[in-house]
Write a structure and sequence with these properties.
With 284 residues, the chain is of the alpha/beta class. It folds into two domains: 137 residues, Histidine kinase-like ATPase, C-terminal domain (Heat Shock Protein 90, 2-Layer Sandwich); 124 residues, 3-Layer(aba) Sandwich (Rossmann fold). The protein contains ten helices and ten strands. Strand 6, helix 6 and strand 7 form a beta-alpha-beta unit. Helix 1 packs antiparallel against helix 4, helix 1 packs antiparallel against helix 6 and helix 7 packs parallel to helix 8. The protein is globular, with a radius of gyration of 20 Å. The N and C termini lie far apart (41 Å).
């Protein structure tokens, strides 16, 4: 982030615990934080990350249909940026909708955030006005009980396969790239990340045997994931390729196979699904 942007963290120590996928919540914070930064990119400002307990009543539920009465942990990300007008606020969670200039995003970041929050039985509320900044508040229902020992996700036996293997990761969204890189490193892999598919293609052309697996996003400015894979195959590289997309259709499945990808996986990624897909590909 530019040095002119100040980060402030305000956490209520009495905030209740929630039952959630830690990696997906990491992705939520990264996406919201990246958007807040971009909203202030042209000027100094403060990015505030908050966490507090909130008792939601019937009146609040009436204003926000996704909420139910009860106790929530409210995670908020606020900026002092350009703000969002009413017309744009109605569409910001739509897949592929973006107000960013070409090359700065695909419009899937907030759609992924919305999907993760909904999957956790939560809600996301946006407060913003043009010129007055924005606040994104994520409401996650408080856990009724907490296990004495933190629960762990059962993973396929992938870590031994990851040892000594290098993965190429391609995604134009830096927040998504960070989360996926963290997942793969937890599975024992070395990871080389690229936000520009053209640079990734050049890297693999220079060292065709370096990577044992490629994980690429579908929708990227300048070169799509399908074009990237076609470029790999045109050079005769038979590396295993996993393509990720937030919107999967039967037509996409057919096109993925046609260009030579080995597997298609749904975004937002979970570590269990990613581990299973990687294990199957490396066992080819």
């Amino acid at each position: 982030m530019p040095a002119a942007i100040e980060i402030e963290v305000v956490v209520d120590p009495q905030c209740p615990p929630v039952l959630a996928d830690a990696t997906q919540i990491h992705q939520v914070v990264m996406n919201l934080g990246t958007n807040a930064w971009h909203a202030m990119e042209a000027r100094p400002g403060r990015l505030t990350i908050g966490l507090r307990a909130v008792h939601v009543d019937a009146a609040q539920c009436g204003r926000h249909p996704d909420l139910r009465p009860g106790l929530y942990a409210c995670l908020s990300v606020a900026d002092q940026g350009i703000g969002i007008g009413a017309a744009v606020r109605e569409r910001i969670f739509d897949p592929f909708f973006t107000t960013k200039e070409p090359g700065k995003g695909t419009g899937l970041g907030l759609a992924a955030v919305h999907g993760i929050v909904k999957a956790h039985a939560g809600a996301i509320v946006v407060e913003s006005e043009p010129g007055r900044g924005s606040t994104f508040s994520v409401y996650l229902p408080a856990a009724e009980s907490v296990p004495e020992t933190p629960a762990t996700t059962a993973l396929p036996e992938i870590s031994p396969l990851g040892a000594g293997r290098e993965v190429m990761l391609v995604d134009d969204e830096e927040s998504v790239l960070s989360v996926a890189k963290r997942m793969l490193e937890q599975l024992g892999f070395q990871v080389a990340g690229f936000t520009r598919p053209t640079e990734a293609l050049a890297a693999i052309q220079r060292e065709p045997g370096r990577f044992q697996l490629v994980l690429t996003d579908l929708n990227m400015p300048g070169m799509t994931g399908l074009e990237f894979i076609a470029g790999l195959r045109a050079d005769g590289n038979d590396v295993s390729v996993l393509l990720a997309s937030g919107h999967i259709t039967e037509d996409l499945r057919a096109r993925v196979l046609a260009v030579g990808a080995n597997h298609l996986i749904q975004k937002p990624l979970t570590i269990a699904e990613l581990a299973g897909a990687v294990r199957r590909l490396l066992a080819r």
